[in-house]
Amino acid sequence: MNDSINKQLEMIKSMAISKGYHLNIIERDTSKEKGTGSHYVDYALKKIEIVIPVDHEEKDAILLHELIHAEFFLTGFPRINRSSEIKCDESDTDLFSSIEDLSQHVLLYPKMNELKVMHEKENINFLKKRLTNLYPDNSAGFIKNSFTLVDSFYRNSDEFLKYEPDIRKTHPNSYQLYRKLKRVLSTVKSPPTARQAIIRIFEIVEKEFTHCKVKYDFKEKCILTPALLKAHHQLFVSELFEIVKRPKLKNIYLKEIRTGYYVKVFSSTIDFQKEKETIKLERCGKYFGLN
Question: Phi/psi at 107 (nearest 5 deg)?
Fold first, then answer.
């Protein structure tokens, strides 16, 4: 493990401890899993779990990739979560994961290049496998294709250019959406701008689903964690959010007033009126653990 990765590892461990989280790194056979490496945040147990392959020539670079994801979480980049009482299938969670990853990969891969540590062979294999097996362009699968194209560009733009001319001809819908998403993601510089980009992508994807005669509503499906500007930390929570009950659901939700997105889920057993009073008296920085 080189110095860059060691420094990143120690930094993330320290950051996690300061936020009350424990960092757990697991090595195992990931050959049958969706990703070669992965990361998971357990909010209840205050644990960040990173999984890397036990035998892989680029294991250190894969570890760095997942550590940067952990850094983004700890520095307030938005997460796209779900409520246990809202029905979500694998396609929903894949959609959430893809959009969240893209909002971070736009900064993650340049940082890996800056540190001169990259899982280059893994990236080339990813492009070869994914870009030669795209979904048909005349179905809703072109939305997934567009995510693949954006991620491929971030992984290795030079290698992507070898596939681009053919994809532009054979998958024009996928390519057009890829260009649109890439423009949106180019605005990501910080947690607040990442959240703005995610919301814009939600709007774009919903519109594309409508064209495919599919109704999809991210506001009803997911929990989009907040990413506040520094100037908002001293505002009372009730100036930006409201505590609400949702039709046919048991849990209590914190809803962003401006956008209408739900940002937090509370158990149905909490004192609803007491929580409404709490957000009138507490500042955002303290409430969301930002201070």
Answer: -105, -30
